[in-house]
Design brief:
This protein is an alpha/beta fold. It is 40% helix and 22% strand. The chain contains ten helices and eleven strands. Helix 9 runs antiparallel to helix 10. Keywords: Glycosyltransferase, Transferase.
Length: 292
C-alpha cells in the first residue's frame, strides 16, 4: 500500500459481492483508445495483469496506428492471461474510438484508461465493490482520483469519503483530471458526435450529458488511476486542437453557457464560442480558397 495524506492507493478492501453475479461475460470493460502508443501500452498491460480482481475485459481500439501496436495486442491475446478485444479503425479521433469501444464492450461498466497510463492493483476491485455498495439503480457512474506515477495527486485533496456531484461541478471542485467509470447504458445513450473533418470533442461535453441521466458518486480519497502527460498527448496543445476542431468545441461551449450559473464563466464560455465560430469560418474560407 502507498498513501499520501488521506489518499488511498493500491489498498485492496475485503472481498464483497460483485455488481452482478459472475457469468461468462465480464462485469467491467476497460476501454483504451490508442494511436501509435506501442511504447507505453506494455505498462498498462502489466498493470492489468496485476489486478487483485480479474472480472474484466480489455477492449483496445486502435485509431489507425502505424507502429507495432497490432503485433503487441496479438501476442497478448495469444498469451490469454486476460480477456483482450482488439479493434482497428481508420484514424477518427479518440472520441470516435471511445464510441467504438463502448459498442464492442461486453461489460455493464465502462472504465476508460488511456494508452499511456496505467491503473492501481486494486482498481477493478474498488470499482466492483463501490458499485455493489451503492444504490446503483440510480447511478450513471462512479468517479475516483488519478495520481501521477510518482504518487502525486492530480488536483486538490478533498476531505470527504464520497460525494454526489455533476461532472461540471466536480471539475471546479477537484481542479484536475478524474477517473470516471460509467454504466455502459449511459454511454450508449450519450455517444460522442461524429463531425466530418474533425477529430476531437471535449469529453466533459458527454460526461455532463451522462450526469443529466443519473447521479455520479465521487470518491475523493480513493485513487485507481496512474498517469503522466506526454508532450504529444491529446491535451498538449489546446489552441491547435481548438483551431482544428471548432465545431466540436462549439457544441461544448454553447452547452457550458447554458449550464453555468456564474456570469463571469458564462462570458468566458461565450467568448470561447465566438472563437470557435471564427475558426470554423477560417476553415471554410481556406477550403474554398484551395478549391479555387
Amino acid at each position: 500500500m502507498m498513501s499520501r495524506g488521506n489518499l488511498r492507493i493500491c489498498l485492496a478492501p475485503n472481498s464483497r459481492a460483485d455488481f452482478r453475479p459472475h457469468t461468462s461475460y465480464p462485469v467491467i470493460t476497460i476501454v483504451t483508445p490508442t494511436f501509435n502508443r506501442a511504447s507505453t501500452l506494455p505498462r498498462l498491460y502489466e498493470s492489468l495483469l496485476k489486478q487483485t480482481h480479474q472480472d474484466f475485459e480489455w477492449v483496445v481500439v486502435d485509431d489507425g496506428s502505424s507502429d507495432a501496436t497490432s503485433e503487441l495486442i496479438k501476442n497478448w491475446q495469444q498469451a490469454n492471461a486476460i480477456r483482450v478485444q482488439y479493434i482497428f479503425q481508420r484514424n477518427a479521433g479518440k472520441h470516435i474510438a471511445l464510441n467504438t469501444g463502448v459498442t464492442h464492450a461486453q461489460g455493464d461498466i465502462i472504465f476508460i484508461v488511456d494508452s499511456d497510463d496505467a491503473i492501481t492493483e486494486d482498481a477493478i476491485r474498488n470499482i466492483s465493490d463501490k458499485f455493489a455498495e451503492s444504490d446503483h439503480a440510480k447511478l450513471s457512474g462512479l468517479c475516483f482520483r488519478k495520481v501521477k506515477f510518482d504518487g502525486t495527486l492530480v488536483g486538490r485533496e478533498i476531505a470527504l469519503d464520497s460525494i454526489y456531484a455533476t461532472a461540471n461541478d466536480a471539475g471546479k471542485m477537484f481542479r484536475g483530471d478524474l477517473a470516471y467509470v460509467f454504466k455502459r447504458a449511459a454511454m450508449q445513450g450519450n455517444p460522442f458526435p461524429q463531425i466530418p473533418g474533425e477529430k476531437f470533442v471535449p469529453e466533459l461535453y458527454i460526461w455532463n450529458k451522462i450526469s443529466d441521466t443519473g447521479n455520479i458518486l465521487f470518491f475523493p480519497r480513493i485513487a485507481i488511476y496512474l498517469c503522466d502527460y506526454l508532450i504529444d498527448g491529446y491535451t498538449s496543445n489546446f489552441t491547435a486542437t481548438l483551431r482544428n476542431n471548432p465545431k466540436g468545441f462549439l457544441l461544448f461551449y454553447i452547452d457550458q453557457v447554458k449550464r453555468e450559473k456564474s456570469p463571469l464563466l458564462k462570458i468566458k464560455y461565450a467568448i470561447r464560442a465566438f472563437q470557435c465560430l471564427y475558426f470554423r469560418a477560417a476553415k471554410l474560407f481556406k477550403r474554398k480558397a484551395l478549391k479555387n
